[in-house]
Design a protein that fits this description.
446 residues; mainly alpha; two-stranded antiparallel sheet; 19 helices; 2 strands; 1% strand; globular; disordered N terminus; Potassium uptake protein, TrkH family
Length: 446
């Protein structure tokens, strides 16, 4: 008698299924009457959209978070943001720690996939550090924001607002409680709010691997190639985007022109940081010039660094592609960063991630031009890129989406958060190397 074969869920399948379950639980909670101020609960599609956006740490909303939800509803959204930002495997590991349970090899492999780490060596220690970093950074950011908000609202409300926005922005989610879809535009010239939230977005987007290496630098006295490339690429993108946005918006009467010199700098800094991939804004996105909007689309597509709470194709992917192009132009065979040669499989993976991302954005944009007829093309492209990169910035299209449009954006956010490659691996039954190789062929290029 044949023994029944045990079905094995590999890490990609577990991650896809895990995020789907969290979204469904969040949907059910947001449909409860106690979740909304009107006492009716959200309709299924709106609840599903909101839960997907929160779990995928995107920030696109079809109803205003600050006015539509009760405290219970807002706390559900906040919990989804935190779990979605750090990953459900991180929280599963936390509970295992609390219960004194040993982390198995299978769970370590899941953590490696969830954290986007290269090896399982030291993965449990990294998860512990991630939890500590998160608590400390969110608490400090929340308290600083609470002090500032206390000048505008009662102390208890200021503390709640401070913690909500700290958690939301550290996890690069972009949800806010200010009401009427205005995000943080009321604090466009406020240095405390701008600098604290920019710091939270940057720390959440740089990646926990980088933060851990900075923390261990006193002992190791070295940084890995990953950290060097991630930090260098992020710094170059930030500096260049600050300069470009400042030049493009300087004479715009709806954005920078009416602001003070300090306000101009703060507003420019915020709009350069937030596409990487937070989603909150201090300038009205629809008032920006078209060149600035196109620049933001590019920044959103690149996104944050690997192993972070942000989305996009990631800074290191973008850097490797640029390095490959530069090597080809110079007639060099190898891609070299900081005197280290990049492996060919890494270059192929970077190319696959980028092409997959471009295909998703183009395909979603095409679908939205069909379902949202009459809308501006740039607005649709902006929305599709924002959803794929889990940014949350919008030119105002999200609340006006048709039912089909909401479904399309939900699927895009899910694909962007979990990762197109992870989904592809999850739905592929067997991934085995070919037992043979075909002879080489030549094709004309260019």
């Amino acid at each position: 008698m044949k023994k029944a074969r045990k079905y094995y869920l590999d890490p990609p399948k577990v991650l896809v299924a895990g995020f789907a379950v969290i979204i469904l639980v969040g949907t059910a909670l947001l449909m409860l009457p106690i979740a909304t101020n009107d006492g009716k609960g959200l309709p299924f599609l709106d609840a599903l959209f909101t839960a997907t956006s929160a779990t995928c740490v995107t920030g696109l909303v079809v109803v205003d978070t600050g006015t539509a939800f009760t405290l219970f509803g807002q706390l559900v959204i906040l919990a989804l943001i935190q779990v979605g930002g750090l990953g459900f495997m991180t929280f599963a590991t936390l509970f295992a720690f609390l219960l004194g349970k040993r982390i198995s090899l299978k769970e370590r492999l899941l953590l490696q996939e969830a954290m986007n780490n290269l090896t399982i060596e030291g993965i449990v220690r990294l998860v512990k550090r991630v939890l500590i970093f998160t608590v400390v950074i969110e608490l400090i950011g929340g308290l600083l924001l609470a002090v500032r908000f206390s000048f505008d609202m009662p102390l208890l409300k200021a503390f709640y607002f401070g913690m909500f926005h700290a958690v939301s922005n550290f996890n690069n989610a972009g949800f806010d409680l200010m009401g009427n879809f205005r995000s943080l535009t009321g604090y466009v010239e406020d240095p405390v709010v701008t600098l604290v939230i920019c710091a939270l977005i940057t720390l959440g987007g740089i990646g926990f691997i980088v933060m851990n290496e900075v923390y261990e630098y006193r002992q190791t006295r070295r940084f890995s190639l990953h950290t060097k490339v991630a930090v260098a690429t992020s710094g170059i993108l930030l500096a260049s985007s600050i300069l470009l946005i400042f030049l493009l918006e300087f004479h715009n009467p709806n954005t920078l022109e009416p602001l003070s010199p300090l306000g101009k700098f703060l507003a420019t800094l915020y709009q350069a940081v937030t596409p990487r991939t937070a989603g909150s804004n201090t300038l009205n996105i629809s008032d920006l010039t078209q060149p600035t909007l196109f620049l933001i689309i590019f920044l959103m597509f690149v996104g944050a660094s690997p192993g972070s709470t942000g989305g996009g194709i990631k800074t290191t992917t973008f850097a490797i592609l640029l390095g490959a192009v530069w090597s080809q132009i110079r007639g060099k065979e190898d891609v070299v960063f900081f005197k280290k040669r990049i492996m060919y499989d890494t270059i192929y993976k970077s190319l696959t991630v980028t092409i997959s991302g471009l295909f998703i954005v183009i395909f979603v944009t095409m679908l939205l031009t069909i379902t949202e007829q009459g809308k501006d093309f740039l607005m649709i492209l902006f929305e599709a890129t924002s959803a794929f990169s889990t940014v949350g910035l919008s030119m105002g299209l999200t609340p006006e989406l048709s039912p089909f449009g909401k479904v399309i954006i939900m699927c895009t956010m899910f694909a962007g958060r979990v990762g197109p490659l992870t989904i592809a691996y999850a739905v592929t039954l067997h991934r085995k190397p070919d037992p043979f190789r075909y002879p080489k062929g030549k094709i004309m290029i260019g």
